[in-house]
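Person: I keep going back and forth on a fold encoding question. Show me how you would write down a chain together with its backbone fold. Please set it down just below, with no commentary around it:
Helper:
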Amino acid sequence: MNLIFNKILKPDFPEALPLIQKLMGHKLDDQLLLERFGEMFEQNYECWGVYLDTELIGVFGLWFMTRHYAGRSCEPDHVYIDDKYQGKGIGKIVFEWIYEYARTKGCETSELNSYVSNYPSHKFYLNQGYEIWAHHFVKKL
């Protein structure tokens, strides 16, 4: 399988938006997502596309930060492989690439969030060696 990882820059982000919407179940307006991602690109965030030859089949974001309890850390975010390519081992390849890339940026750990109802991802992340350390809480202001 000829997978290629390309950084998606802010002006090219609309290309990734359909996959983000699939992951989220089309819960947010495109314009709102474009605005939010526009802000994210100004922070310690990178967006990456997963291409099979020239076809965009997946997307993920990476946040880089230092945590007092974990050291320099990489947080994969909104990891999504298009439905027709799921279950083919692509997720493992993506995460191997993420870990190697994070190491080159001096990261000691990787941590992430997963939607409570996304049971397949929980199994995947546990099989990747992630441990559940906490609950993630959100409060609308």
Observations:
- Helices lie at 17-24, 30-40, 90-104, 119-127.
- The two ends are 45 Å apart (CA to CA).
- Residues 90-104 form the longest helix (15 residues).
